[in-house]
Amino acid sequence: MGIFNKMFSGSSEPKEEKVLPWIALNDVSQLENIKEKSESKTQFVFKHSTTCGISRMVMKQFVAAYDLNNNADLHYLDLLSYRDVSNEVGYKFQVMHQSPQLLVIKNGVVVAHDSHGAINEMDLNKFI
């Protein structure tokens, strides 16, 4: 019975979940501020579909691996709730929409972007 207890019962202590310093991106007006701030500090925009299993998996892996602390601003966009913002991100930064998607913005322009599993293969340290 020991193996089944380990597989299905979990530990008695709650697992502490890592929380990133997300900045909610929920208004088109924030995009100009992101562009301006990118002149002095790298800006990341993570576009996430809250109903997509792949997006949820990529987000979980991203959170687990993220280790840049306060060296960049990290914006979170729920693209289903803020479709207009998601559309404007594509227009303003000239990047075709995908989900999930991570944009790296420096000096007012997107210097890198990727989607799906490739997000977690990006070396974000080189953009700091």
Please give a structural write-up.
With 128 residues, the protein is of the alpha/beta class. It has one domain (19-127): 3-Layer(aba) Sandwich (Glutaredoxin). It is 31% helix and 22% strand. Strands 1-3-2-4-5 form a five-stranded mixed β-sheet, with helices on both faces. The chain is globular, with a radius of gyration of 17 Å. 23% of the residues are buried.
* Biggest beta-sheet profile: 5 strands, mixed
Number of helices: 4
* SSE class: alpha/beta
CATH topology: Glutaredoxin
With strands numbered from the N-terminus, the spatial order across the biggest sheet is: 1-3-2-4-5
What general outline do the C-alpha atoms trace? globular
Q: Are there runs of 5+ residues with pLDDT below 50, and where?
A: none
The appropriate CATH architecture is: 3-Layer(aba) Sandwich
List the topology elements.
Layout: H1 2-9, E1 22-24, H2 30-37, E2 43-48, H3 53-65, E3 73-78, H4 83-93, E4 101-106, E5 109-115
Summarize the structure.
The chain is α/β, with parallel strands linked by helices.
Task: Spell out the key features of this protein.
single chain; 128 residues; alpha/beta; Glutaredoxin; five-stranded mixed β-sheet; 4 helices; 5 strands; 22% strand; globular
